[in-house]
């Protein structure tokens, strides 16, 4: 047994693996290296053992194939720290027979740690007068890895002033030194921010960085300097006081009190100082008075900056005032032609306007328009002038006055506007003729009127005004069928009343027509005409006039009885025998001329009757022997007027069958001779008529034959 143990102690297995292998990674074929076959593994019961439990947790042996595997992540830096070598040792036990083998697993370093500076920022204060070549210790970075994976050197960000050098101490650690290569100038570089990098030797290499903050301390050797020589600012004219206009800033490359700057105005006009003020500490220029673009469009300020050492710098600030639409357009009426005649041609200038806006740009651009219904339009002229012209024909009769509003509006936002009212009066021109209320008038006048009676009143209207609309009336003449009609009436020139000049007689003139003329007072005058037709109304002023029997014979039957005409009625006449017919006429018309007949007086009233409307005298019964041979009848002729007028007619009738019977009835021989004379006249007339008819027939036959022969 002792020999076996001594032999086992002399045998040692060694494996090498990298750190940070994942769980289950193969370390080595432990059973094979121990000379065990897979068939022997169950009987030999291969396992690992160690005096410390810490080593056993990292490895395990497979019961199936006897291979050694990683059972937990290995961290070389955790196990061995800064040691250059690192390994884990344990024993492998086999049974039947028992045997012990020493196993050592070397943990090889992996570059899994980057160099790390103890602090991330390093602050250095270096005066700007420090000479080149000066060195400044920066310290050392740490790297947990070993060997080539450990810290190897330092690098510094490229710059024009510093470099870094690597120094190695006696224990082999490497540290960095900052070396000044060129002179510093605080006015150029007040501070430097550099990146220091520490590099290891791994593949790929890892690095760590630190920030170097190098402040260059000052020496008072620089005056203040403005950021700009000229500043330009804009401010609206409606800006309120207290508004910050612009901020000027000056810098001083020095430090401390030498770099403390105060601001103020240089030589500046008092007018400007009333508008602006500058803050001595901040350099902010603020507004302290109201601005007016129309008064001053810009200001020039001279600002100075003074440091604690008394050095001064100057700059110019130009403040431009921006226009705000705070002025409404101003309308000035330069000329107004009122009144204007209504016959003015289209395009006549009636008003000249001047529109001005004190603002500028779009705020000062003005457009004008007319508000209101009027035959006018506005036309832009040069230099902000506008002309108001007639856009269509004027008519005073439709509108004697036109009121329009001129609205001027600028293009600002919001737009401002103003207005001015124009009152244009239209003067009258005699362009309208008088117009009668009716084209044709009719008047009805009773006859026998009084001279000067009113017949009719006519009226005409003229749309013009003044003398052009003053109408007078005249008679222009009568109709062709009313010759001499004009003197019958007269017309009053002013009122248009038509009066009768004399009394009218229906029987002489039943109607007449006149032409009336209405004429205005314009120059030249205009006129129009109307027709007046006057109808004379009939009155019952004429009594009936008897045509048969003759009124003369009826008027004096006693003085000349032999000359009285008579009618002969045979005694054998039957009732209804026509004896005679009373013929009468009435010069009136209508009912005034309707006639009726009555038998007013008769020798034998029962023997005769008189037709009421016909005037026929007929026998009412048969003539008897007792009736007197000579009968006298008086007929009354009456019209239907109010009051009625009448006339009488006397008719003599002789009852006889023959002339011989009639002669005794006549008391005077002259009557017989008159009767014979009347019969002779009748005979001569009859013979003349027959002869004339015969001669006419012969001549007609002769001319007809001659015409046929041609």
TrEMBL record:
Function comment: Potential calcium-dependent cell-adhesion protein. May be involved in the establishment and maintenance of specific neuronal connections in the brain.
CC annotations in GO: plasma membrane
Subcellular location: Cell membrane
Entry GO MF terms: calcium ion binding
Residues of the Cadherin domain: 9-117, 118-226, 227-331, 332-436, 437-546, 569-666
GO BP term, pick one: homophilic cell adhesion via plasma membrane adhesion molecules
PROSITE patterns xref list: CADHERIN_1, CADHERIN_2
SMART domains named in the record: CA (SM00112)
Protein name listed in UniProt: PCDGH protein
TM annotation in the entry: 681-703
Superkingdom field: Eukaryota
InterPro entries named among the record's database cross-references: Cadherin-like_dom (IPR002126), Cadherin-like_sf (IPR015919), Cadherin_CS (IPR020894), Cadherin_N (IPR013164), Protocadherin/Cadherin-CA (IPR050174)
The entry's keywords: Calcium, Cell adhesion, Cell membrane, Glycoprotein, Membrane, Repeat, Signal, Transmembrane, Transmembrane helix
CDD domains: Cadherin_repeat
Membrane topology label: Single-pass type I membrane protein
């Amino acid at each position: 047994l002792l020999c076996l143990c001594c032999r086992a102690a002399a045998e040692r297995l060694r494996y090498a693996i990298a750190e940070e292998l994942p769980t289950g990674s193969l370390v080595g074929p432990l059973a094979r290296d121990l000379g065990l076959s897979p068939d022997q593994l169950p009987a030999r019961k291969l396992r690992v053992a160690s005096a410390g439990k810490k080593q056993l947790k990292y490895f395990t042996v497979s019961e199936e194939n006897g291979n050694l595997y990683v059972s937990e992540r290995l961290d070389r830096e955790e196990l061995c720290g800064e040691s250059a070598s690192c390994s884990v040792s344990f024993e492998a036990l086999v049974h039947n027979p028992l045997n012990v083998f020493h196993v050592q697993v070397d943990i090889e370093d992996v570059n899994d740690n980057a160099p790390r500076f103890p602090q991330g920022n390093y602050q250095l204060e270096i005066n700007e007068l420090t000479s080149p070549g000066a060195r400044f210790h920066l310290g050392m970075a740490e790297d947990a890895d070993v060997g080539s994976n450990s810290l190897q050197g330092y690098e510094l960000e490229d710059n024009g002033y510093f470099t870094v050098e690597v120094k190695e101490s006696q224990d082999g650690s490497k540290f960095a030194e900052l070396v000044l290569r060129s002179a510093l100038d605080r006015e150029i570089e007040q501070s430097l921010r550099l990146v220091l990098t520490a590099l290891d030797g791994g593949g790929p290499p890892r690095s760590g960085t630190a920030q170097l903050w190098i402040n260059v301390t000052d020496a008072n050797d620089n005056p203040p300097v403005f950021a700009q020589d000229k500043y330009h600012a804009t401010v609206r004219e409606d800006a309120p006081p207290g508004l910050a206009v612009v901020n000027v800033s000056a810098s001083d490359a020095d430090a401390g009190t030498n770099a403390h700057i105060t601001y103020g105005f240089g030589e500046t006009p008092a007018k400007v100082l009333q508008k602006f003020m500058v803050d001595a500490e901040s350099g902010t220029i603020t507004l302290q008075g109201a601005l007016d673009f129309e008064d001053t469009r810009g200001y020039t300020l001279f600002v100075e900056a003074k440091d604690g050492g008394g050095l001064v710098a100057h700059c110019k600030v130009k403040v431009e005032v921006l226009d705000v639409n705070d002025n409404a357009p101003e309308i000035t009426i330069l000329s107004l032609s009122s009144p204007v005649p209504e016959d003015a041609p289209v395009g006549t200038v009636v008003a000249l306007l001047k529109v001005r806006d004190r603002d500028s740009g779009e705020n000062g651009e003005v457009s004008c328009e007319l508000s209101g219904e009027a035959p006018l339009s506005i036309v832009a002229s040069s230099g902000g002038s506008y002309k108001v012209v007639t856009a269509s024909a004027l008519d005073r009769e439709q509108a004697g006055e036109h009121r329009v509003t001129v609205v001027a509006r600028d293009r600002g936002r919001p737009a401002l506007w103003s207005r001015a009212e124009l009152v244009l009066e239209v003067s009258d021109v005699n362009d309208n003729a008088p117009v009668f209320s009716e084209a044709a008038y009719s008047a009805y006048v009773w006859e026998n009127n009084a001279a000067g009676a009113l017949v009719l009143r006519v009226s005409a209207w003229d749309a013009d005004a003044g003398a052009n609309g003053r109408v007078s009336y005249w008679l222009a003449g009568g109709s062709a069928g009313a010759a001499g009609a004009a003197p019958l009436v007269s017309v009053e020139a002013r009122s248009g009343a038509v009066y009768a000049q004399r009394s009218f007689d229906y029987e002489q003139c039943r109607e007449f027509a006149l032409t009336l003329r209405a004429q205005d007072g314009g120059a030249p005058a205009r006129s129009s005409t109307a027709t007046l037709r006057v109808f004379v109304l009939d009155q019952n002023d004429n009594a009936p006039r008897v045509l048969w029997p003759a009124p003369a014979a009826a008027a004096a039957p006693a003085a000349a009885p032999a000359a009285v005409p008579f009618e002969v009625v045979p005694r054998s006449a039957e009732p209804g025998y026509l004896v005679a017919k009373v013929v009468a006429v009435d010069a009136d018309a209508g009912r005034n001329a309707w006639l009726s007949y009555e038998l007013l007086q008769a020798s034998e009233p029962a023997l005769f009757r008189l037709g009421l409307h016909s005037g026929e005298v007929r026998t009412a019964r048969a003539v008897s022997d007792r009736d007197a041979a000579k009968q006298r009848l008086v007929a009354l002729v009456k019209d239907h007027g109010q009051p009625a007028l009448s006339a009488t007619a006397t008719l003599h009738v002789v009852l006889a069958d023959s002339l011989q019977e009639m002669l005794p009835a006549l008391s005077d021989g002259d009557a017989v001779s008159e009767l014979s004379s009347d019969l002779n006249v009748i005979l001569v007339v009859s013979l003349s008529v027959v002869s004339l008819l015969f001669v006419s027939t012969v001549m007609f036959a002769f001319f007809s034959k001659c015409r046929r022969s041609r």
